[in-house]
Amino acid sequence: MVREQYTTTSEGTSVERPESPCVYRIGIYGWRKRCLYLFVLLLLVILVVNFALTIWILKVMWFSPTGMGHLHVTKDGLRLEGDSEFLFPLYAKEIRSRLDSSLLLQSTHNVTVNARNPEGEVTSRLKVGPKMVEVQSQQLQINSKNGKPLFTVYEKEAVVGTDKLRVTGPEGALFEHSVETPLVRADPFEDLRLESPTRSLRMDAPRGVQINAHSGKVEAFSQMDIVFQTTDGTLVLDAETVCLPTLAQGSQGPSVSSQGLYEVCVCPDGKLYLSVAGLGTTCQEHSQVCL
């Protein structure tokens, strides 16, 4: 502890003050001062480097008051110009291209678009893969530019809303179940063929089935039977000539001269056969065909 001594003197007297044996120097001296200056210099260098890096990042990333690089912030949302690559899922309410360009979505594996409800569950999904385009939804509908439904698919049926459905494949169209349509027609100068390779072919209509060939013929082939059946009406063959080339023929008697004339006979089961024409009917004489 340092004790300070105070001496009171009057005017005209001179008294020497005793020197203090201990002298204190206020401040930082020596190696402490050099370390402090070095630390301040290091902080200044770090500050300059950080400021230079910040300026470089702003310049490289093209930061501006309206956005960053090709990404601009507008009142309607974000505007992105050029090609962009997203490494993680993108969530957006609406994605659209510029008025003078198209929108291209490209991926090395697949492109998947999901629609979710407020609970986060996926309600609809569109997946474009390398080999297949898959749509998962309760209803798929394709509309024209006027809003008219062109093609609608439900869980149990598919509806074609166009005036005409045209199949251009060389093998035609294959339907595993029934088809409901008011008209089936081939292209001009082309044949129309309805075929069931392993099962039966059936055409039903509440007001009739009409088959027309304006410039050709109608042919029906079957390995088994071809049955024309009507419940309340009649079967009408309205033509100039009715030709039955392979109709069965009854045996000709030894004393009967046919002169090339035959009679068409009908068996009880509906089978037709030919009998040699005579002065009267000869169907009974050649009815052994019906046995």
Strands of the widest sheet, in order across it, are: 1-2-3-4
Helix/strand structural class:
alpha+beta
Count of alpha/pi helices: 1
Question: How many distinct beta strands?
Answer: 13
| N to C succession of SSEs | HEEEEEEEEEEEEE
Biggest sheet details: 4 strands, antiparallel
The termini sit apart by 152 Å
Helix content: 10-25%
Estimated radius of gyration: 51 Å
Strand content: 15-25%
Enumerate the spans where pLDDT stays under 50 for 5 or more consecutive residues. 1-6
Query: How would you describe the shape?
Result: rod-shaped
Average of pLDDT: 79
Structural overview:
It is built from one helix and 13 strands. By secondary structure, the protein is α+β, with helices and mostly antiparallel strands. The strands form four sheets. A four-stranded antiparallel β-sheet has the order 1-2-3-4. It is rod-shaped, with a radius of gyration of 51 Å. The protein starts with 30 loop residues before the first helix and ends in a 15-residue tail after the last strand. Residues 1-6 have low confidence and may be disordered.
In short:
This protein has 291 residues and is of the alpha+beta class. 10% of the residues lie in helices and 18% in strands. It contains one helix and 13 strands.
Topology at a glance:
Blueprint: H1 31-60, E1 63-64, E2 67-68, E3 71-74, E4 77-80, E5 111-116, E6 122-128, E7 133-136, E8 140-143, E9 149-153, E10 158-160, E11 248-249, E12 262-266, E13 272-276
Parallel strand pairs: 11-13
Antiparallel strand pairs: 1-2, 2-3, 3-4, 5-6, 6-7, 8-9, 9-10, 12-13
